[in-house]
């Protein structure tokens, strides 16, 4: 199973084996990772599941769809080039060892 | 540290508990709910969960481990009384819970259809997971599905069922869909969408009785006609659960009355979410909203106050509804707007309606146009408006807001 790592603002990190097909958001909720609110339950509509993807790995992800792109304009913490909505990242075998950082605020 | 007892384990109750811990609250947090299991999301009940696309495990807002890890006590039971002098909540099974602060997040219940036959088998509402499960069971064998009420829940249900290939009739008492919540342009667009998928929509339809022996067989309208039905879904609005508050002597007026910081007149009791009426800056008066955004933002505002810093509630209301592949997103409050300008291309299924009141932009309704929706939320948060003259073809609202807000 692909392993996903979630890094908090204080530098602490947790890694989990995630079933392919789940989103990075869903896996975080299930594992109880702090800092991911996911108010809309994965509909790309609340922008409270914002994460920063490890810059070295961002190329592995397909580009954001228009909806996600628009949502990223209104995240509580500033948007960066590696900003993504974790509910829109589907975990696949190719994403094994993906690392995302949780922003300070959602 | 104060012990906080929260009555109502739905979206708002969960969020109060989670936000209290996130903000460092050290006292006990007890979340009392009368539904089985952990708190779950309601929106998918009429959408992905109903159609089977979302498995039941994913309905939960958080797994049980979350509550264990954060020391949030989940109590299954129904609160039946509040003794404000002794700071105690009584549960139906005669347990008592002592509180330092009490939060009421009791939500709403479905309004019942006031006609003969409303209790027949096969007549159902859609509010809880149990309701959705009962509907799913019935959908399989149903041949004639009638939805009473053309609001969000009725229409989302109708869309989910039409996608499964069933024929559906929607009965709406007024002259357009989602009348209470959207502009005529959006109503018209959704009517067409539903009709194109084979759903029959009848306006001015007043139901006078439901027919059947044990099981429902038909729906009788005021004009005497009877529509055959073996599954009837009633979606005619909700009633806030305020009895607990009223019995305890708290002010109730179509909701539990709270101030700008979600406090009732008793400083030890607050109310948030669907059950609360609060002074809204956006409505310029008392408001009770039924939305996830409202429940979550109320809860966060209250948790902030209970852990130290009080700020008046000021969040911009927003809402979404998914029907077929049309995603409706609403920012602001459109009730009593006096001018609505359609921007974009309704025929292509992507447009926004800009609603003004006395020349001021008060609401933006977007259909498959998330950039407009997000721009509107940004603009309203910044307190800005929009010059209506700018709304010419080619105007890019997102760019405009990026430049001004
Ligand atoms: C089918 C459906 C679809 C929806 N879709 C959307 C959508 O797309 N977008 C959106 O923004 N909103 C949607 N909503 C609305 C949204 O779910 C509500 O606004 C939100 O759940 C309100 O949260 P709440 O905590 O205030 O109330 P609820 O979630 O209703 O929670 C209240 C809880 O309190 C419990 N309770 C009541 N009285 C007592 C008592 N005395 N003792 C113990 N427990 C008690 C109730 O059983 C319930 O579990 C939808 C709602 C439904 C039903
Ligand atoms: S969970 Fe709401 S945008 Fe991802």
Automatic annotation (TrEMBL), chain A:
Superkingdom: Bacteria
CC terms in the record's Gene Ontology section: cytosol
CDD domains according to UniProt: fer2 (cd00207)
Cofactor dependency: [2Fe-2S] cluster
Pfam families with a match to the protein in the record: Fer2 (PF00111)
Domain annotation 2Fe-2S ferredoxin-type: ranges: 2-106
GO molecular function: 2 iron, 2 sulfur cluster binding; electron transfer activity; metal ion binding
Entry keywords, A to Z: 2Fe-2S, Iron, Iron-sulfur, Metal-binding
GO BP annotations, alphabetical order: P450-containing electron transport chain
UniProt xrefs under SUPFAM superfamilies: 2Fe-2S ferredoxin-like
Entry's family note: Belongs to the adrenodoxin/putidaredoxin family.
Identification of the protein by name: Rhodocoxin
Lineage: Bacteria, Bacillati, Actinomycetota, Actinomycetes, Pseudonocardiales
TrEMBL record, chain B:
Xref: Pfam families: Pyr_redox_2 (PF07992), Reductase_C (PF14759)
Recorded GO MF terms: oxidoreductase activity, acting on NAD(P)H
Domain Reductase C-terminal: 318-399
Highest rank taxon of the organism: Bacteria
Domain FAD/NAD(P)-binding: 3-299
Cofactor: FAD
UniProt-listed InterPro entries: FAD-oxidoreductase/Apoptosis, FAD/NAD-bd_sf, FAD/NAD-binding_dom, FAD/NAD-linked_Rdtase_dimer_sf, Reductase_C
Keyword set, alphabetical order: FAD, Flavoprotein, Oxidoreductase
GO cellular component, one term: cytoplasm
Protein name: FAD-dependent pyridine nucleotide-disulfide oxidoreductase
Organism this protein belongs to: Amycolatopsis methanolica 239
